[in-house]
Structures
1.
Amino acid sequence: MEHLLEIIYLIASLTFIIGLKRLGNPQTARRGNSIAAIGMGIAIAGTLLIYKPGHSGPVDPMIYVLILIAITIGTITGWITAKKVKMTAMPELVSMFNGMGGACAALIGLIEFPHNSGDPQSVAFIVAGMVIGSVSFSGSMIAWAKLNGTMNKAIRLPRYNILNTAIMAAIIFAAIYLVVAKVQDPVFLYILFGAAILYGILFVIPIGGADMPVVISLLNSFTGLAAAFGGFLYGNMVMLTGGILVGSAGTILTLAMCKAMNRPLKNVIFGAFGETAEGGSEITGSIKEMSVTDAAVLMNYSRSVVIVPGYGLAVAQAQHVIHELEQLLESKGVQVKYAVHPVAGRMPGHMNVLLAESNVDYDKLVEMDDINPEFKNTDVVLVVGANDVVNPAAHNDPSSPIFGMPILDVELAKHVIVNKRSMKPGYAGIENELFFHDNTSMLFGDAKAALTKLVSELKGL
Amino acid sequence: MEKIIALFEDPGVLQMIYIIVLMIFVGVEVIGHVPAVLHTPLMSGANAIHGVVIIGAILVMLNTGMENVPALVLGFLAVVLGTLNVVGGFVVTDRMLEMFKKKK
């Protein structure tokens, strides 16, 4: 029977690989997710039905009852939370679920330590899984709090880089000591657990909101690693393969996101960015404000309009209105496209998910590299709640902190209309010279309110 | 040094190292060519997959006797959290992807 369980684990591992592969293509993504979920289901069911513990005697039936109760609680809570969450709140939910996985790995370590404390190899896996899981847990909770606005300031302790590095070094040193010296007293493990939790907090706290997706992706691969250490501990293949797979895929994903933002991972973790306005030249000039009516007229009589959605659109829940605007313009013979920057919103792909929610045609969403050559032939670009991703300083101001980041070249269009709530700088905390260009007009106001007015004006034309 | 080489004498260890190395490459290959639009669902899907850590939590429970109440309490909590990761992760990913279906 034990072999049957191994076969089940093999099948589950395959579903993870196939599932992840299919997630990489819009046509097959949903099926891929279901395949991986089914694999997970049979791995869990197989463990419950087939696994026999090494110690003598059967498992107390009460244990099974407890496990089933726990699974039921988790399933109902997880299901309801995931179904009810607003599209804008999705990134922080992913972060929270990631934290739960990390906490699960940490708890396993805490429980397993006392009866493995003689065996250095097991203790090494236990300590590694626990430390990584704890960091992932507390880090994800901070990321969650930052994304949902509970904690919207980057807090920097003095010399936080040195402090964090020192704590990390201390944790690694203590972990090695725990293994090598064969420490039996679980109190040492609890101290290590506390230190890892603290490190997770201090690791994420100084990082600005703009870099949060990268951090979540990184912590995601951490949790994968923690799960893999659980696999080592139990010699459990499905935990090992699943964990390593997520660990490596998560790392690549993290690097891909960094690349899209043109920010080396090192700068994300150690650099101060996202809150301070260091660097960047002073911009002089004046801005032009535009009325809704003027904007409506301009768009009505243009041939092509490109909409650049940003996080402001998500916050204002304006994804449905923007779709209405797009359909209205199309009905008037205006060609409309969406230019989606890879890191628009708070997570890569966030805007796509959001616009898809309001039934925007997938083919209308154009990626940065494909739309950039088209801007010079575009009549009107409507920027809704985006800022840093359209800041020309990335091209022409070497002193700017975002210099070198790939951006949408909206300034090449004939007219640029920027809808923003105020002149407040974006996440990078820097001024945007685009707003001062001659062909740029500002349309101030909440995205939803402004776009609703724009739609009604257009209907009247 | 001998100690490290001695580790490899155990075929189980060697087998695990094979699996790790191959899995790392699989992970890299699988993610390598994904369009940016799918980064969020992909991260979310990967997030659900590392919920496999719940298997560990179940093993802990199955290996714990009824008399060890503290371990059972922590194990129970671990199973709840692991399930949250798995179920929440897959459902949220599905919700994201639901929106990618083609409309004609």
2.
Amino acid sequence: MNLVINEEQQMLKTSAKEFLKNRAPIEALRKLRDSKDPKGYDPQLWKEMAEMGWASLNIPEAYGGMDFGFVGFGQVLEEMGRTLVASPMVSTCLVGTSIINFGGNTMQKENFLPRIAEGSILLSLASEESNAHRPLKVSTQYSKTDDGYSISGKKVFVLDGNVADYFVVTTTDASNASANGITLFIVDAKSEGITIEKKIMMDSRNAAIVTFDNVKATEADLIGEEGKGKKTLEKALDIARIGLSAEMLGSMQEAFDRTISYLKERKQFGVVIGTFQSLQHRAAQMYCEIQLCKSLVIKSLQAIDTDSPMLPYMASMTKSKVGEVLQLITNEGIQLFGGIGMTDDEEIGFFMKRARVAQQTFGDYNYHLDRFARLSGF
Amino acid sequence: MDTTIQTDLEVFRMETKAWLEANCPESMRTPVKKFEDIYGGGSEATFDNEDQKIWFERMRDKGWTAPAWPTSYGGAGLNKAEHKVLKEEIKKLGCRSALWSFGLTMLGPALLEFGNEAQKLEHLTRISRGEVWWCQGYSEPGAGSDLADLQTRAVDNGDHFLVSGQKVWTSYADKADWCFCLVRTNPEVPKHHGISFVLINMRQPSVEVRPIKLISGSSPFCETFFDETVVPKVNLVGGLNNGWTIAKYLLTHERSMIGGISEAGQQKLLSQIAIEMVGLEDGKLADPVLRTEVAKWLINGAGIKWSMERMTDEAKAGAPIGAKSSFFKYYATELNKDKFELMLSMGGFEGLQWGEDYLDGKLARDMCRTKGNSIEGGTSEVQLNIIAKRILNLPTK
């Protein structure tokens, strides 16, 4: 398959760039942060993004979506990474939509997808329980009751947990703790027994600790079959890993562009510092690493669109490489900006902070190197 | 879509397949193991075996040693689509190259671009027919990374030049009939503007060649000395003092070629070698640090492969590769060095034995040889300079 985006995808990318430059520059994130906004994102902005169809790029047309394909979706994510937009895109569209789309029944799709598409509800996956990404290690339990199910457990690092309307929660069977199955429920965030504790992360975005204490669910809230949620969960996570990598690719390119511009204007010893060969070589090495990331990301986006059996490999290859390189670029960014790079006034620091949270979201560098090796049989 | 063209191409594919099946000897369809497995041509050339001779002669007579060159120069005049079909069918059947030489891969493209009709007729024809072995006279003892500082001079002597000076790292100069060479024709102007590209007949007493021994033991490299060597002016290519343009064109070519080596030579996945050499414990490579290194290497290997694909696709869409070949060259050669370091470490004590066959080659020697990958064809540092200057537009002063 050709590794160049087509005209339609290019148009979407250009319009996204234009919109975000005016409507959601990094200044907007700074304002959300400084005003200690309780929501942590701009609902009006999200509404506008949804009106342009961005919340429905991966929703089938039958459910009110654009069904634009992930190579196209990736272009929007990349541009969002460039301006570090705080939005529910990752939690609701990448993860939420994927889970409903691949694991949900017709009724659930009809119920949730059109509302996600129009931007009127937010979803969030509540899966993490330990202090690092271990999506398949679940101790939150469900038990059967007379009129359905009861869920209890504690979830951490629930993205946009403070503003979500629904949680997709991963559970195991309380009556059969040794069974390795995962069961997915979708529950209303306002259900009795749910406690949400908002946490402010270093990238100024939302995450929450969500506690489920005998939360009631019915048969209709079950996504797929009992004990068989692993496949849906893994697929949604792989899609989210690749989508997030596209966002991270945008962030690394923007941070790099800003660093290169700075090298061309900052003067020391009577010359611009970009003339120094030691800095030129570091810049050139970063350029090379970014090229690899670009290629991995577009290959992976294509793998989603073609429903490739290689998807898990691709997701882990891409997330690990992109995470490693974004860390490099953001660190070098601050170093090459020098003292000014350490100040809060200069925006380069925002990229470093976002990079660290994105790195650990859906599995960091080490997690994915290990997973890639395991999937490859060594 | 034009169905006639489609049909013509399908017919061409069927004919090509049938011809290859009928004409490529069975032994020429096995993987290449050593240098001599592919015929290189030249006035002193010998065939490794009878099948190699048959295969070469049949391909030569078909014009398929240089399929895309015009028939008047010994090619087959195939268009791009046909050439692609031929390559695909050759690959499917696993046929070896019938001829491989610097003449075909380097001088040929340069002559097609910059040579005059007489030069094309004479030299391209002899290259495609495998009659001449060419070597490349670029680097000098004092002009390595700073290639444009070369001092070998060509003095105007009427209808010919007299060339004097020393070249180094001339691959296979000891076998070469001719040399395409960069010489200084004007020492008075800035260095890039006083260089010319000339074709030198190596079969004259004023040319002396001495082989160089490398850290890997043997090597194809030589030192070449010219002492008032006669070069008729008809052998000047692309005009006087215009040699740097051709040199840059060829270097871009060479960089993409070297960049492609690590991919082409790969027979077995690095992870497979690691499993065989180090073994698994609970399904994981027994050495956890090595496991991480191998995983990283494989991801980077895929990344550079797909980057070449992507940039080739982008070139077709109108964004030329240009200086991006420096990225391929830098990254692929550094990766190849890493790969051999990893293999040597997996190979343990046995892998250290000098000159013994190990892991599909002579591992210890091969590993030493990879150190040159990031030096020849422009060092890694020079590639980084080019990226900084020509892609990132960082200022020089």
